[in-house]
Amino acid sequence: MAITTDVLILGGGLTGSTAAHALANKGVRVALVDVHDQIPNVFKAEKAGPHSLPQLRRLGIGDSVEAVGRKLFESIDAADGRILRRMRLGERGYYYHDFVNHIRKQLPPEVQFIRGTARRIETSDNLQTVQLASGETIESRLVIVSCGGASQLFDQLSITRTLVIEDPAIGFAMLIEPAAGGKFWFDGSGVTYYPNSAAPRISYCSMFSVPGAMRINMFGFHDVKSTWVHELVDNPQAKLVRTFPKLTKLIGDFRVATKVEVMPVRPSVANGFRRPGFVLAGDAFSTVPPSTGKGVYKLMHDVEVLAELVPEWIKTPGMGTQKTSTYYDHPQKREADDHVRMKTLYQHWAATSTTVRAQVHRMRFFADAYIKDLIGYTADLG
After folding, report:
1. Cα–Cα distance measured from residue 132 to residue 3, given in angstroms and rounded to the nearest whole number
2. CATH class for domain 3-72+87-164+266-345?
3. Nearest CA to 39 among 94, 121, 109?
């Protein structure tokens, strides 16, 4: 016998779990399908900034990031071994799996969690049918796909993807410790450290406190099979020092305490997504380079728009394309998508271009930040 619900969400990561929480709190019956009972330790979005934190609070999951995250009292921009700018941004550093698993624990009873993987999907103007690998069938008014790797379902629905940039993006993560023991002077803060040139094809490295440790994440544009990546994985300490020659001048001698985690990303956006009874959210709709720092920002906009529209959709018969298209055409979603796309193009250009214009731009950014710090300018966003 088929399971029936108002909304079926495929993918229980940050997007899916947050959407399930927000919709259930508005009285919508939700089934959430994910292959894992608990999200495993995986390198994904590990920092919530001043724009995404208010979104989390509006969606009712602000307590989760407060519970598992470390408050970052100050955000510091730095390059060439010196501080460029200090800001109070009210950020939080956390481990992705801790954050998502805490959200799942707080899911309202209206959410039915089902462990499984979707294998087939049939959509229509009224009722959607999804078959799981286990053979179970779920019928729902609406299907929200929030798992970026749902290629089998995309093939069935003739949904394709277009690359936003040709170069693959990549992120690296590891823990670091002071070589002499103790704590880093910026413990409880976050440091964004920029390279002096485009030679390493790296946007920046981000050092920030997470519960019980200091995380260092580095983002750029490399193929995962490249020599550069292999050198970093084999000897992260040496590669970090070569990429950022004066880093130790700023933070002191350090050692890499863990293996390097690697997150390759192909920045892309879906095509052919306007369909009855079916919408794409988060990474399923578009993937962005981790260097943009806009992953959480983007997916929270998707969830906010869905939380506004879906309860109204459910009140009336049908779930045709005319309804689902209002999600993609919503001004808030369009603005966020456009912003992230432009940020993607900018980050790629700034990290990889060796033109004189790019070099001048880099120098002006450093000079502007340094002057603001000299005159005592402080941005305070909470």
Report:
1. 11
2. alpha beta
3. 94
pLDDT, one tens digit for every residue, the chain (382 residues): 577 999 999 999 999 999 999 999 999 999 999 999 999 998 998 888 877 888 888 888 888 888 888 989 889 999 989 888 888 878 889 999 999 999 999 999 889 999 999 999 999 999 999 999 999 999 999 999 998 766 788 889 889 999 999 999 999 999 999 999 899 999 999 999 999 889 999 999 999 999 889 999 999 999 999 999 999 999 999 999 999 999 999 999 999 999 999 999 999 999 999 999 999 999 999 999 999 988 888 999 999 999 999 999 999 999 999 999 999 999 999 999 999 999 999 999 999 999 989 888 888 877 776 676 565 555 443 3
Here the tokens at position 230 are: 């292999």
CATH code assigned to 169-263+356-374:
3.30.9
CB 187 within 8 Å of CB 207? no
- The domain ranges of the chain are 3-72+87-164+266-345, 169-263+356-374
Can you list the alpha helix ranges (DSSP code H) found in the chain? 14-24, 52-58, 62-68, 96-105, 151-156, 227-234, 236-243, 247-251, 295-315, 321-328, 331-352, 356-374
Does this model's pTM top 0.90? yes
**236-257 residues labelled b (16+ CB within 10 A) or e (exposed):** beebbeebbeebeebbeebebe
- Among candidate residues 328, 327, 280, 277, the one with its CA nearest the CA of residue 123: 277
